[in-house]
Every structure is written in C-alpha cells, then in structure tokens.
Amino acid sequence: MGTVALARCGGRPFGTHLFSVWPGAAFAATAFPVRCAPGDNLALHVAVAQAPPGSALVVDVAGEAEYGYVDEILAVAARTRGVAGIVLDGCVRDVTAIAHCGLPVFGAGVSVREVGHDAGGAIGRQISMNATGPAPLPVRRGDWIVADDDGVVCLPRGQVSTIIAETMSSITREREIVDAVCAGESTLDLLGLDPSRVTGWEGGEHTNDPAPRGRPRQLNPRRGDRGGEGHPSPRSRRGSCSTVTDVYGGD
C-alpha cells in the first residue's frame, strides 16, 4: 500500500522535506528508533549492529541536519545486516554509492560535511522527529514505517490493522473511480463536486446519471461491505485504461 493511501486513512506523515535518495526506493518495516548526537553518527553505527533484521532505522539528528549522517560505508553495512531502510531528518552523502548499494534511504538533503563517531546518542528508545512538519512526530520501537517516492508515513503500533483495513477500502474506491474516468465519466460527478463555485463555469451535464452536487455518486453499491473474507484484493481491479490504472499499483 502506498504512502498516499495510508496517510489518507490514518497514517501519520513525516515532513514534506524528506525525499528518497534514489527513485523507486520503498520499504515497509517496523521502526528501530535512533537518536544521534548533533553532528555525530556513532549511534547509527551501533543501531546497524543491533537492530533486528528487517527493521527500519528512524533517526533523529537532534536538530543538526546539515551533516552527512549516512554515507556509503554505513549504507553498505546496513544493507549487509538486513536493515530494510533508513529515514532521517538530516542529510546524507555519497548518494550515488547509496543508490548503487540499493538500500532505501530517505533524508532531508545532501551534505558533504563529515560527522564524528564518538559523541554517544541512544537507540531503541522513543524519539521525536522534530523537523518533520508543524508538530514533532513521535516514533516508538514497533511502529510501522512505510516509505516510497511520495513520502514517509508512520503507522502507530496498535492502530496498524485499523489503518490497513480503511486503506484497502479507500484503494478499492479509488480504483473504481479511475475505471469510471477511463470510461468517459466526469470527476465532477464521480466526486460530487460543485463546479458553480468556480468563476467561468458555463454549466452543462457530464453523465446521464449525475450525482447531486456535493455528494459523490455511488459506484458498485453491492461492494458496500468490504470487511471480512469477501474483501476484494486491492490489486484485483484493472480498467480499460491500463496505463493509468498501473500508476496506482504502488498503493
């Protein structure tokens, strides 16, 4: 499931400033929190040695973002140890080598400034990603982290099943809308939008069965109950406009 759909259904997004070091990088894994001392990545090296294989390192750099906390050596070590990915609210360096290594890394920028390796830090304890948006985002060990080209989201432990269930329903609804658009229907009718609010609207109907303005038209009402064993697979629908539908494969 993609980060856009998860954020729409309760996933907590990290800041918009975070980006993937190489296009197509993606992972979903439980968080192993790391807090670095400012300008120092000793805690990251310790985390690589101790984090459970398959987990993701989520790194708070204590507000000192302008250092290259993750470099080629650390990325290769993390990949070799089975780390699923790294998210940090600081900078990285050796971006070409990191891409070649294939480790999914999401950071706030690129910096050639080298870090120290002796100032301490902490691992495995709750952190606060202070540079992630309008409010600090707490991350605890065991939270789920999902990252792709659209960004990074956190699914707090204890809420994962609920968020996933809502996301599956949302994805199914979105696929139905894409199929209808490919069949020639208007997004105004499908989403129940009111075009009269836009200056210059000249009126006119869009389908033979328009929805009341402000209320989205129901698609496939027999699918209203999407819970339980009858829940359709989020990858099961393919419309006639396959190129457009494939764009949503990441969800």
Description of the structure:
The protein has 251 residues and is an alpha/beta fold. The chain is built from seven helices and 14 strands. Strands 1, 2, 3, 4, 6, 8, 10, 13 and 14 form a nine-stranded mixed sheet that branches. The termini are close together.
Beta content? 15-25%
CA-atom Rg in angstroms: 22 Å
Counting H and I runs of at least 4 residues, what is the number of helices? 7
- H/E series: HEEEHEEHEEHEEEEEEEHHH
Global shape: elongated
Helical residues, percent: 25-40%
Topology:
Elements: H1 3-8, E1 12-13, E2 19-20, E3 27-36, H2 42-50, E4 56-60, E5 68-70, H3 72-80, E6 85-88, E7 91-92, H4 95-101, E8 105-107, E9 109-110, E10 121-123, E11 127-129, E12 137-139, E13 144-148, E14 151-155, H5 160-182, H6 187-190, H7 242-247
Parallel strand pairs: 3-4, 4-6, 5-7, 6-8, 7-9
Antiparallel strand pairs: 1-14, 2-8, 3-10, 3-13, 11-12, 13-14
Helix pairs in contact: 3-4
Record keyword descriptors for this entry.
elongated, 25% helix, 14 strands, alpha/beta, disordered C terminus, 7 helices, 251 residues
In short:
The protein has 251 residues and is an alpha/beta fold. The chain has seven helices and 14 strands.
